[in-house]
Design brief:
253 residues, mainly alpha, flat
Length: 253
């Protein structure tokens, strides 16, 4: 490798290190700002279950260190989620110089929409799915069985649902990206609507608790988001990109 090739590589590595440090610092700042409220954050996250539990019932901690470490773990996860805009900005700042002008115009809406969709998915799980799912699960306990959920197991359960719903709400962005790079075409996706509908219920069955309410509440939004992705993908087809690039080059000349 020649010296001319080494210099750009070193510059990219230095820039990458800078962006990674900024990401770590953003997460650390948010975590330090929230760590004092760790117990309050856990209480907020556990509220959907506590409202559905029988009178006098409460959550338990089967591990000695769980009352201390579980809220801290939750706070760290919340810090990562809240720092998503800053993380995406650092990623964008690192890759933007390598993109064409029209590509930067197309990528920016994708970054913003992906962040908003992830947050909307989490909010949908918290405000809509959790009350219905926990209401069903707590009221189906056999007679004589007291519902007393372990705080650590509850955190693992709700975080898996948060990530599942947040990821599923990224379907439009995934479809747009696939159409943009030419892997699929919007016309082909329209023909596969019946299969996508069935697949939505299968995925929902695997990601949600074993009750029909939470499965349906995930499957229906997934399919609607698929339709939204198909609609917006027509603006990101390779043909559209090529035409935009030609017009951009003409403007430059």
């Amino acid at each position: 490798m020649t010296e001319e090739n080494t210099q750009p590589l070193i510059g990219h590595l230095i820039e990458l290190r800078k962006r990674l440090i900024n990401i770590i610092l953003s997460i650390a700042v948010i975590f330090l700002a929230l760590v004092y409220f760790s117990n309050d954050i856990y209480q907020l996250v556990s509220a959907p279950l506590m409202k559905q539990m029988p009178a006098g019932a409460s959550m338990i901690a089967t591990d000695v260190a769980s009352p201390f470490f579980t809220p801290l773990k939750l706070t760290f996860m919340v810090s990562i989620i809240l720092s998503a805009p800053a993380v995406l900005y650092q990623v964008w700042a690192f890759v933007a110089p390598a993109l064409y002008k029209h590509e930067r115009r197309l990528v920016t809406p994708l970054l913003v929409s992906s962040t908003l969709l992830f947050y909307i998915g989490i909010a949908f799980a918290y405000f809509v799915v959790f009350p219905l799912a926990f209401g069903f699960l707590t009221h189906t306990a056999p007679r004589g069985v007291t519902v007393a959920t372990d705080i650590k197991n509850y955190l693992d359960f709700v975080m898996s649902l948060f990530l599942a719903f947040g990821a599923c709400f990224e379907i439009p962005v995934a479809i747009v990206l696939l159409c943009w790079i030419g892997v699929v075409e919007p016309a082909d996706l329209k023909k596969k609507r019946p299969y996508i509908l069935v697949a939505s219920f299968i995925v929902a069955m695997l990601l949600t608790p074993p009750d029909v309410f939470s499965q349906t509440l995930l499957a229906i939004p997934m399919y609607c988001l698929f339709e939204a992705g198909v609609f917006f993908s027509r603006f990101y087809t390779p043909k559209q990109n090529a035409a935009t690039e030609l017009s951009t080059e003409a403007d430059v000349q």
